TrEMBL record:
UniProt-listed Gene3D superfamilies: 3.30.390.30, FAD/NAD(P)-binding domain
Family of this protein: Belongs to the class-I pyridine nucleotide-disulfide oxidoreductase family.
Pyridine nucleotide-disulphide oxidoreductase dimerisation domain residues: 362-468
Presence of keyword Flavoprotein: yes
Names of the cofactor(s): FAD
Organism: Pseudolysinimonas kribbensis
Keywords: FAD, Flavoprotein, NAD
Lineage of origin: Bacteria, Bacillati, Actinomycetota, Actinomycetes, Micrococcales
Record-given protein name: Oxidoreductase
UniProt keyword Transmembrane helix, yes or no: no
């Protein structure tokens, strides 16, 4: 049995854990990552990267088809086998050697195996070959273990071996038919990708809308385009039972209907990867999300007992997005260094050691058709939070840039103005290729740039970014 002591132990070598360890080492501490699967985690191998790779071919074709002159050259559809091959190439065929090389180059230790707490600042790591390493931390342990797909308790569902996001992103062949449970981000993105491969997709959605955390027009535009692409959408229905036979999986639905598909993908949210982490050894409850303060320090059972325990990324449930987890990681790594060295902690809102943006300025792109790019609060969320707001809507198709971009550009944009401070609380764009417009909105929201000053941020003509000028003109000066 090997033993080792480090200043910082990071459990989980996903994109988030890697960044915590990197910041700690850059601050002069020693750090080790414990990883039970692939260094790079879910995002690199089963989530962001492969899903976006699978979506890209369809998006490129749609763009070309809507530009007269280019459209004439598009004579076929997406070739799924080439799209799967490109996906595999982009994610290095599930080989993490390049990420391991990066970890080594960053002077971060790496222990492969499954970590469990044995006590405060103490972990036991079991590798697949049975090797055991006992690790102790001088200053901090960071739980960056991510999340797993949530499976609903539906009779028979587990027995039909449903697809999760991992199966959908690592498939090497498109099924003829696919049922998808859920109407959120994974469901809509995977419906878009598989419909582009020629799969007959049926979405089974519990509520009456898609992408419910977003402005309502986003879900409505995505719904219309999925239906145009041949996706069947069953709103107000849930799976009541499932069984598999030679015809595939048959789902009976709560609305009395049923459907049969070759595969069923469950995409109804996530559950924390904290069940098998030995949390009971430190007085926490296995299977819970880790509750943290803005410096990412665990507060679940009173901050005093856990001044050495942190959690970043999906595991803390603040914002289940790679970029936001990496943002937390930078604050977390830096605050661990500051506390270890007895340096001042900058934990005022927007300080170096806090993840303030998690509360009201989270950017997200959903890579559907159309893309949905949003940051900050929706109109409903701003109202709920008690702000006095004005909603500014603009139709993206009215922009000169849109008419050049595509022959039938369809899209909408919304900005939420805080009427008391005359700054933006949130912005949403839904339209083809809006993803690259998001960072300007994020800067305006995080920077709390006054509308008066935004008039001086002149968008280039003729680009889609002219929506910024139209927002201001619509609002009035
Ligand atoms: C289909 C899909 C598409 C997505 N697309 C996007 C996107 O486009 N953009 C975006 O921002 N977000 C996207 N997300 C969300 C994003 O994938 C997650 O927010 C991100 O991966 C979280 O990173 P993490 O480091 O917290 O967790 P993970 O990436 O899950 O990493 C955690 C790591 O910890 C390891 N681990 C867990 N327990 C232990 C243990 N006990 N011992 C040792 N190691 C352990 C795991 O093996 C894993 O490697 C997507 C999610 C899904 C499901
Ligand atoms: N492009 C991106 O940024 C991207 C892409 C994919 C995933 N993600 C992240 O991954 C996370 C997980 O995505 P997701 O789509 O699984 O979750 P989600 O929270 O986005 O959507 C889950 C959907 O399932 C529904 N639902 C919940 N329980 C249900 C049940 N028992 N039966 C039927 N429907 C049920 C919800 O109403 C919701 O519509 C998200 O938080 C998202 O941030 C991000």
């Amino acid at each position: 049995m090997a033993e080792a002591e480090y200043d910082v132990i990071v459990i989980g070598g996903g994109a988030v854990g890697e960044n915590v360890a990197d910041r700690a080492v850059q601050g002069g501490l020693s750090a080790v990552i414990v990883e039970s699967e692939l260094v790079g985690g879910e995002c690199s191998y089963w989530a962001c990267m492969p899903s976006k790779a699978l979506l890209r071919a369809g998006a490129a074709l749609r763009a070309a088809r809507d530009v007269r002159g280019a459209a004439q050259s598009v004579t076929g559809g997406v070739d799924p086998s080439e799209a799967f091959a490109r996906r595999s190439e982009i994610i290095h065929d599930w080989d993490d050697s390049s990420q391991v090389e990066w970890v080594e180059g960053a002077h971060i230790g790496l222990v492969r195996g499954h970590a469990r707490f044995t006590g405060p600042k103490a972990l036991r790591v079991e590798a697949a070959d049975g090797t055991v390493t006992e690790l102790t931390a001088r200053h901090a342990v960071v739980v960056s273990t991510g999340s797993d797909p949530l499976l609903p308790d539906v009779p028979g569902l587990a027995d039909v071996r449903p697809w999760t996001s991992r199966d959908a992103t690592s498939a090497t062949r498109a099924p003829a038919t696919l049922a998808i449970l859920g109407g959120g981000v994974v469901a809509c993105e995977m419906a878009t990708a598989y419909a582009s491969f020629g799969t007959a997709v049926t979405l089974v959605v519990r509520g009456q809308a898609l992408l419910t955390g977003q402005e309502p027009f986003a879900g409505e535009l995505v719904r219309a385009s999925l239906e145009k692409a041949g996706v069947s959408i069953r709103m107000g229905a849930e799976a009541a039972s499932a069984r598999r036979d030679d015809d595939g999986v048959t789902l009976s639905l709560t609305d009395g209907g049923s459907l049969t598909a070759e595969e069923v993908l469950v995409a109804i949210g996530r559950t924390p990867r904290t069940t098998d982490l030995g949390l009971e050894a430190i007085g926490l409850t296995p299977g819970d999300w880790m509750q943290v303060d803005d410096t990412l320090r665990v507060v679940s059972a009173g901050a005093d007992g856990f001044d050495w325990l942190y959690s970043t990324g999906d595991a803390n449930h603040r914002a289940l997005l790679t970029h936001q987890g990496k943002y937390q990681a930078r604050a977390c790594g830096d605050v661990i260094v500051a506390r270890a060295k007895g340096e001042p902690v900058d934990d005022a809102p927007w300080g170096r050691h806090v993840a303030t943006a998690d509360h009201e300025a989270v950017p997200q792109v959903t890579f559907t058709d159309p893309e949905v790019a949003s940051v900050g609060l929706t109109a409903a969320a701003a109202e709920k939070a008690g702000y006095r707001t004005r909603v500014v809507d603009y139709d993206l198709s009215w922009l000169a840039g849109a008419s050049v971009h595509a022959d039938h550009y369809e899209g909408k944009a919304r900005a939420i103005v805080d009427e008391d401070r005359k700054v933006l609380l949130g912005v949403t764009f839904a339209g083809p290729d809006v993803s690259e417009m998001l960072q300007a909105a994020t800067i305006a929201v995080v920077g709390q740039v006054p509308l008066d000053r935004l008039w001086h941020a002149v968008p280039a003509y003729p680009t889609l970014n002219e929506v910024w000028l139209r927002f201001l003109e619509t609002y009035g000066r």
